[in-house]
Amino acid sequence: DADVTQTPRNRITKTGKRIMLECSQTKGHDRMYWYRQDPGLGLRLIYYSFDVKDINKGEISDGYSVSRQAQAKFSLSLESAIPNQTALYFCATSDWTGAYNEQFFGPGTRLTVL
Amino acid sequence: GQNIDQPTEMTATEGAIVQINCTYQTSGFNGLFWYQQHAGEAPTFLSYNVLDGLEEKGRFSSFLSRSKGYSYLLLKELQMKDSASYLCAVIPGATNKLIFGTGTLLAVQP
After folding, report:
1. Rg, C-alpha atoms of chain A
2. Which of A27, A70, B85, B102 is the most exposed place for a label (fewest CB within 10 A)?
3. At CA A37, angle to CA B104 and CA A3, rounded to 5?
4. How many CB atoms lie within 10 A of CB B60?
5. Across-strand partners of A34?
6. For the segment B69-89, what is each residue's pLDDT rounded down to a tens digit?
7. Is the pLDDT of residue B64 over 90?
8. Which residues of A touch B102 (CB under 8 A)?
9. Residue B42 reports pLDDT greater than 70
């Protein structure tokens, strides 16, 4: 079974709709992240959370919100989707060892906003 | 600001060696990662450097020079399955957030 899962894997929606992308992990990691990936722009950090009570904005948080429901679950919401939010979205997790921060990525959610 | 530069695309021949360079200018430095990403798939971890020098792992090696803000990923004995994007990422400081470059798309030809 995959350690980091994302649902849905693909979603097509219309402008103005509210969308939630979900991420679950069985790795027991405290740290979770949401990225979006666009051609030519690489991976950009939207939000991150270092534990259940900690939520932080990343580079491009406008238009997005998150919820950390439990150590294993981190959801990303688009309150009112717009076409330029069409992208590939990745959730990632990491442990904290004091010197190492390898991130493990989920399979991605391809979101299309029409 | 934070800036990470990689070539956009590279082409190499099966069985050959290729070096993918990465230069960075960040507010601090707490480590550099290389990830591999096949089209439409998740990035997967390849290597981590925090001290100057070469880290070798099978066919893949990664080098770091902190004074020059420079790293490279060396792929030996190239195989067709190595065709993918290679992402350089830096931890700029104590926050442990990763800043990614835009990636280098490597095409391995027969």
Report:
1. 13
2. A70
3. 100
4. 17
5. A47, A91
6. 999 999 999 999 999 999 999
7. yes
8. 40-42
9. yes
The mean pLDDT of A5-11, rounded to a whole number, is 97
User: How much of chain B is in helix, strand and coil states, percent to nearest 5?
Assistant: 5, 55, 45
CB A87 within 8 A of CB A112: no
B48 shares contact with chain A (CB less than 8 Å) = yes
- Of B44, B50, B100, Cβ closest to residue A43: B100
**What number of CA atoms fall less than 13 Å from residue A106's CA on the CB side?**
32
The answer for B77, left when phi > 0, alpha when psi is -120 to 50, beta otherwise, is left
Closest CA to A18 of A67, A58, A54: A67
Q: What is the pLDDT of residues A12-29, one digit of tens each?
A: 999 999 999 999 999 999
CB atoms within 10 A of CB B24: 22
pLDDT of A28 reads 92
Give the mean model confidence (pLDDT) for residues B31-60.
95
- Chain A residues inside the 8 Å CB shell of B91: 101
Number of H helices, E strands in chain B: 0, 11
Q: Exposure of B21 by Cβ count < 10 A (0-12 exposed, 13-18 middle, 19+ buried)?
A: middle
Beta-strand pair B53-57/B3-5: unpaired
Distance from C-alpha of A59 to C-alpha of A77, rounded to nearest angstrom: 16
Q: Give the integer Cα–Cα distance in Å for B62 and A78.
A: 38
The pairing of strands A10-13 and A109-113 is parallel
